[in-house]
Structures are given as structure tokens and as C-alpha cells.
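Researcher: Batch entry, complex prediction.
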Amino acid sequence: MAEIIFGSNTMQLLIALILVSTFMILGSTRLYSCIRDFGIQSFLLACVAGTVAFSTGKDEIYIIAVLTILFKSIVIPYFLLYIIREIKVKKEVELYVKISPSLIIGGMLVVISYYLIRSINVISELSSFALSASVSLVSIGLFIMISRKKAIMQMLGILIMENGLFLGAISLTNGMPLLVELGIFFDVLIAVLIMGILIFRINKTFESIDTDLLKTLIG
Amino acid sequence: MISALVSVIFQIIIILALSPLLSGIIKKTKAFFQIRKGPSIFQPYYDVAKLLRKDSVISQNVSWIFHAAPIISFAAVMTAGLLIPIFITRLPLGFAGDLIAVVYLFALARFFTALASLDAGSSFGGMGGSREMFVAAMVEPALMLSIFAVALNVGSTNLSYISQTVSGLGIDALSPYQILAFVALFIIAIAETGRIPVDNPSTHLELTMIHEAMILEYSGKQLAIVELGAMVKQLLVFSLLANIFFPWGIASREAGIVTIVLALVVYIIKIFMIGIAMAVVETSTAKWRLFRLPDLLSISLMFSFLALVSFIIVKGG
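Model: C-alpha cells for the complex:
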């Protein structure tokens, strides 16, 4: 595996900022700011892809970076905002776990993923940082899905998990083949569309997108 | 090259002279954003000078703590000022304490202010004191963690050494842990200086005030000392921010006079920039409910924690 020589410092910075944006999602109580932070996170991810492209000289990774900006930091956030506007949902995140405990659990998840990654023998320090960041993104995304009541936040959780996978893939392999990436993008886009439609249906049936209500039976 | 004694005296004079000006500039910036004219930037000097000419009205029920607290707090803050590099590194008193000493000198000042607020027996004072301690209990671990992240990176807890090393690194100092620790310390600076999401410095509304409630019983000369102490603390917290994270331009004590004067000018610019940034933050946010403050401070705690963790991951501790 070729080590990324150029901008190893830049990469560290970007990855740390991605972690920061994840914690901003975890720490905010407004749906709008959660979605905005997700957009920022995706933009930073695109910057990571751009850095990898620059240092490896593979042109197709630039395409991936541009697609990431286009879809994940523009189209998907606007789609989420559209959903929020259309179903006139209350603009606060409802929580099962309060903000401060969530943040502490998020921090613990970062440490746990670091120790998990340390047991794998990764060659360079950079990819160990990137890999532990990506595993913590996946676990924090999962935690957001568990601990938030609104269906939109669960959608956001799965998107954060997907971002984590993307980060891991791009930092370990120095860019997957273009075809695979395109397939993943298509998958994500369709998944977001389907989840959006699902949220509309949930809202229509229950007059709310609180997933608590899904547990009660309707005869 | 200036001698040890001269540099200590010079540093004290600079701290005392600049801190009211900083307060004035923050107030003026806030007034600008609220489309008011606002008081002159020299108003804090006039306030302190006027208060110093007045006699104090003191309750008959107070003990010696009430008299001693302003002086002890002020002395503690000024001592911290001698340990923090302001515009020259390698301070002559740098051997006497490192950043842990600075943190706990601030804690000492806060402890005595809170104690004095309880002493007079007014209900507002007790409320202010308990709130201040509530905030302090969350600020302190975050402050320690974030400074530790920087200290680990540099390899020393001596503040002069930290700013010298970081300024020697140049642009390489812009590492992720440094930035995370900076964000954490910025949030802490808001809480430490009693700025808006945490405390409103310009209010006397009994439900919201923290610092003002504690010093409600003071008047005259004692109030002047308390107010000046708060301004000096604000200046020192900002200097900590400036000289740990952006120490570029700071001069060593052995440098020539021209370099030192230049360092002083750069320092003043940096401090005012931070003050203006703080004023922008203050005008663009609303004051938070007291019981939401743990959220804000746990965000800061989390940032400093992330700084430590990412340092350990990257450097493979």
C-alpha cells in the first residue's frame, strides 16, 4: 500500500474536523443544524477524497469528490430540508438519551474504536487514524439511530454510517474503482429517496414521525 | 535584552493598562452590532478611577473574609499574570509555576469571590456563588484537559516553553489536536470571562446574573478592585488563547528592544482580534438557560477529550 506522502498533515486535520462535525450533530438539538452539520461533514469528506486524488494522481477520485459534494452535501441535505418543510414537523430533535450523556458516549465510542483498530496491524499512522475515525463514525451513526426519536434523525444516522464507510474505504485503499463508488452513490441516493417516501408514509399514517409510535399496534 | 526586574514591572503595567481598554473595545463592538453609539472605549478607566475615589458601604454583619476576598482574588489573578507569557517568553518568574498553577490561581480567585458573596448573607449573593461554582465545576476539567492536550503535544507544561515551541513550529503547529484544543479553550474562555451564552456581564436582572450577583454587596474602592480583577482575568484568558495557539511574533526576553516592541504591538492586535471575535459571538447568540449550560460545557469537554485521543492515535501513544 502506497503511503500518502503529500499533505499527511492536511489529512489529519480534515479527519479531525470530520470527527468534530460528527460531534456537532450529536450535540445539537435542532433538526436544521443537524442537517447542516451533515452537509459540512460530507464536504470535508469530499476534501479528503480530493487530497487523496491529489497525492495519488488518480483522476477518477476527483470525480468521486465532486459527486460527494454534489449529492451528499447539496442534494441530500436539501431533500431532508424539503421533507421537514413538507410534513411540518417540530424542528427539535427528540432524544432518548440527553445531550451530555450522548456526547460522553460518543467520546467513549471513539476510544473503543481506537482500541479496536490498534489490535489490527495497520501500516501507517495516518491510515490508523483514518480507520479509527471511520469506525467511530459508523458507531456514532448507529448510536444516533438508536437514541433519537425522529425518523429523519435515523435517516441521518444511516447516512453518517455510510460516510464512515466511505472514509475508511478511501483512506485504506487510496480510492476504490470508479464503478464501485458510482454504485455506492446510486445506492445511497435511492436509499435516501426510499427512506424519504417511507417518512412521508409514516407521517401520513401516524400523523407524526416519532418512531415511538411505531411500536403501538393499530388495528 | 531587558533585565528581569524591568520585564516583571513592565508586564504588570501592560496588564493593568490594557485590560480596561479590552473591556471597552468589547463593549464598543457590541454596541456597533446593536446599532448603538455605545460608551467610549476608555469608559472602563473612568469607571475604575471614579470607584477608587469613593468610600465603601459595608454591611455590619460581614467578617474579615469580605474585606480580604477582593484583595486575595486580585492578587491571585495578578500572580497568574506573571506566569503567563504576555509578549515576552522566558519570564523571570516562569520557574515559579506552570499552567496548572495558573488554572488553580484562577480557581483560588473564584473561590474567594464566591466565599465573600456568601459572607454578606444576601440571598442574591448566595445564588450567584452557587451558580458560579456550578459553572466552575464543569469548566475546570475541560480547561485542564484542553491545556493538557497542548502540553502533551509540546512536551512541557511550562507556558513560556509552550508558546516558544509552537511559534518555532510555524505552520506545522496547525495540527488537529491543536485546533480541537483551541475550540475547547474558546468555549471555556466564554465561560471563564462570563460572556453571553453563559453569563451576561451587562445585566443586573436577578434571575440571570452570575458574576454580578456575587459582587452585589461591594461598593467603592473594593468594587473597583473586583471589577479590575475581572477585567485582568479576561485579558489573561485571552492571552492564554493567543499565546498558546497563535504565539507567532512573541519575543524572547533576550531579544533586542525593537523585537520586543514589535511583539507588544502584535500582542495587542491579537488580543483585540480575540476580543472582537468574542463580541461577535456574544451578539449572535442568546443567553442559555442555566440548566442547558452543562450541554455547552460538555461539548467543550468533548473537544478537549477528542484532542487528547487524536493526539494519542496519531502519535501512537
